[in-house]
Write a sequence for this structure.
């Protein structure tokens, strides 16, 4: 497939590469040569404002991909074939699918002035997807499925690539254990707090765990091992290895024997990544130190990451990841609501909008985190199960990549999370059999 354009820009090259690989497993070829385009005998798209011949598929450009500045966009959504679209144009396709996809994929709106949430993150309420009601849909994938039909109708002999649905379970180990191996001071402090509050049940539970009579309530690792082995899953575990505790960094210190053993065991069997501490977002070079420490414990190179509390700012955070040698990041989602932050259920390379260049950092967006359902959306177990099933079905319908986030604490025996473990086990069981 070739695409004619009056000007080849980094933005256009980036998005046509992405769409080309999604549709044909190879990038589109861009050309500014009208004679070459006219004489080309194969399928071709005219991405301009002027018709060239009758053999082309015309997509009129709205101008966004020809720019090299970041400015407020006047976006008006409309409905077509039961889904939302924007950047309406004339031509053989009703909107500029290249520009609209770029706007969402590049997270263009996050570079514009915006309100922050209570954690200093980009507030999901700012997003077009939330305002227009398509946050729960992988809209770009849906567009591309529709676009494939139009392409196929125009060029019947063209072979369309159909990707396969994949499921990637991922886990954030923010707090490896509730009571186990937290050190003398934290243990005494925790026990004193239980007693001061008259929480005799928690005090008793802590004592039984510390004396080896009960399993730690956050210890769900054996259960997960069994699930992964039984259903042939390839999980990724992200470990928080802050060297000191704080308001948002509460894991067992990585110097503790239990934490070291846990990391080593998982590194031997699974893919693991860094879960940069909250503090690393404020202190230069701290994330690099944490990464090196994790690599030392794991005994292997670590190239994957996910931000703790999904705390990141564009473009600064992703640039830091690249500088540290991270090649794959799993933070593209919200820590305040479930859904598709970039409106896509496919992995994609991060585009640095300020530098106007595609990077080598591959982003793997997630759409469901149980902590969002529980803490932010206040869902019951059944509501969360229904929500998770929705994401499973919608991603599967477009042959996308489903990435979920769970925490070990939800999958153990802590009474606060009663029913969540059973819900997850049932989801894995049903998903593996369907």
């Amino acid at each position: 497939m070739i695409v004619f354009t009056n000007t080849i820009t980094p933005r256009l090259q980036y998005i046509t590469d992405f769409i080309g690989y999604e549709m044909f497993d190879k990038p589109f070829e861009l050309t500014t040569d009208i004679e070459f385009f006219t004489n080309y005998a194969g399928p071709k798209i005219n991405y301009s404002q002027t018709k060239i011949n009758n053999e082309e598929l015309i997509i009129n450009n709205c101008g966004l991909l020809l720019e090299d500045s970041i400015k407020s966009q006047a976006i008006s959504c409309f409905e077509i074939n039961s889904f939302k679209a924007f950047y309406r144009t004339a031509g053989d396709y009703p909107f500029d699918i290249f520009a609209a996809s770029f706007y969402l994929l590049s997270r263009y709106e996050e570079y514009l002035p915006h309100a922050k949430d209570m954690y200093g993150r980009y507030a999901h309420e700012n997003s077009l997807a939330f305002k227009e009601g398509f946050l729960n849909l992988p809209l770009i994938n849906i567009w591309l499925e529709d676009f494939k039909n139009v392409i196929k109708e125009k060029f019947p002999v063209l072979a369309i690539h159909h990707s396969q649905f994949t499921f990637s379970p991922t886990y954030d180990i923010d707090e490896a254990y509730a009571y186990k191996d937290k050190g003398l001071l934290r243990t005494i402090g925790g026990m004193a707090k239980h007693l001061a509050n008259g929480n005799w049940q928690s005090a008793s539970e802590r004592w039984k765990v510390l004396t080896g009579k009960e399993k730690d309530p956050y210890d769900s690792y054996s259960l997960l091992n069994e699930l992964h082995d039984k259903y042939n899953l390839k999980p990724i575990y992200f470990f928080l290895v802050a060297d000191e505790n704080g308001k948002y960094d509460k894991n067992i210190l990585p110097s503790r024997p239990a934490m070291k053993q846990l990391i080593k065991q998982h590194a031997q069997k699974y893919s693991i990544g860094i879960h940069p501490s909250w503090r690393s977002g404020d202190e230069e070079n701290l994330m690099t130190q944490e990464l090196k420490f994790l690599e030392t414990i794991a005994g292997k190179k670590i190239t994957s990451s996910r931000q703790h509390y999904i705390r990141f700012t564009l473009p600064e955070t992703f640039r830091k990841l690249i500088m540290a040698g991270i090649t794959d990041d799993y933070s593209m989602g919200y820590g305040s609501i479930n859904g598709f932050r970039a409106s896509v259920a496919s992995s994609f390379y991060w585009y640095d909008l300020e530098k106007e260049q595609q990077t080598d950092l591959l982003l793997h967006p997630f759409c469901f985190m149980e902590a969002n359902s529980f803490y932010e959306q206040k869902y019951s177990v059944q509501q969360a199960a229904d929500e998770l099933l929705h994401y499973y079905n919608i991603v599967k319908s477009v042959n996308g990549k489903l990435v979920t986030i769970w925490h070990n604490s939800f999958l153990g025996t802590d009474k606060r999370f009663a029913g969540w473990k059973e819900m997850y086990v049932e989801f894995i069981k049903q998903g593996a059999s369907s």
